[in-house]
């Protein structure tokens, strides 16, 4: 007697076979991910109360969004479906007013070993070698049994309603677009997927205004220089021998010849509004790049404007925006490394156009990329009243002499802060928590703990800090020396846990993180992750920090 095949599970009010045909019509193919998505959506819907207006999130851009659009009112077009492509096969439905809902995921632990479904999910075989019919049967038979469900609460910042806002006409391409995107549309900011509409050119031969001509230097007497002309004397000097607007005289011809300037640009009329001279570009770019604490008012020199610090502080760079700007043709900005301590009047960055003239479209694209938050800032570092909690039985009981207090006092003083109070505590959770409260009661506005941060069972500093009410704790950093570093807050004040390596090494994570805390920056796991590149101190015999790669 032939054994009966297991029955397939329905997807909502549809039989499995009916849903296959629906998927074929909507998606052009009954893809496994779409069929599984059907079960996921119906599972999520079963947890939503009758009459609830809900929205959806798909954590994958593959197939799953189509299942949501087929079985719910949520679509990408009406804005009720967000596709957040984490590459995870999970989706959620949530009350659009409260943000409470449910997340459903395909649970890898529930996929039967040896099943075609597991082979497909983990891509254990090439697609051509997979048994599509068997895979489809398993999906229909297993249905919701391979799913896991958990309650969710949507973040408040994601509950704002979608709105285009005011509409503007792009001065570059003429398209209508949301004005909040900047002075020009995002396509003209360099984000267009189309070569023909992007405004970019792969040519290094930038066009010039029709009014600009070349003329032999010997025939250019009385003409005005169209730009600064640089003279380089190897090993001696580099500078502008002639400035823009200089009128060429007979006495200049020999020097021009020495400089290798046998021809000059001359103009028989203004370039026109569709062309921006390199000096004007540099001035505009410098203004847009500069934020608080940055002086961008220097006159262009050799087509370049240099930005300087208006006061002492910590130099901050919006790296992603700087990359976006430098990705455009015809423009550049270069700076020293971010998170560098700088002094008043220090040179921080410089910017210019690459060609003598930029076309207005390119110029406005560059300014649009710089729209909003500035790229460069100098963050003032406050003068903190630091409280230091030195932990460890060996120091507390006097078995060894403490050296941490003097090390921290020296580093704090160098940054304009004061070591206000020091407390010693043994390796005891209660004593450490009490020590933190003692420092807070003494008026300390920056808490630094030392040691007790390794994996040894005696090291309970983290536990004591949690007991004391520390929050937003991040433990472990891709910095050497200083991998066991801890950062967080307590009573909204910055907290820094310094590992014992700071007793031995001259430069550690302490030197990289303390300035950021004094500049009012909350350090996140992502911030620390970005410090991995450049986060290894080379321990040079003659330390030149901060003029070295450490922390850069």
Question: How would you describe this protein?
Answer:
With 552 residues, this protein is α+β, with helices and mostly antiparallel strands. Helix content is 26%, strand content 23%. A 6-stranded mixed sheet has the order 22-21-23-26-25-24, with helices on both faces. Strands 2-1-3-4-5 form a 5-stranded mixed sheet, covered by helices on one side. Helix 2 crosses helix 3 and helix 13 packs across helix 14. The longest helix is centred in the N-terminal third of the chain and has 14 residues.
Count of DSSP strands: 26
Mean pLDDT: 90
The coarse overall form would be flat
What share of residues are in beta strands?
15-25%
State the strand order across the main sheet.
Answer: 22-21-23-26-25-24
The helix content is 25-40%
Give me the Rg, rounded. Answer: 32 Å
Structural class call reads alpha+beta
Summarize the main sheet: 6 strands, mixed
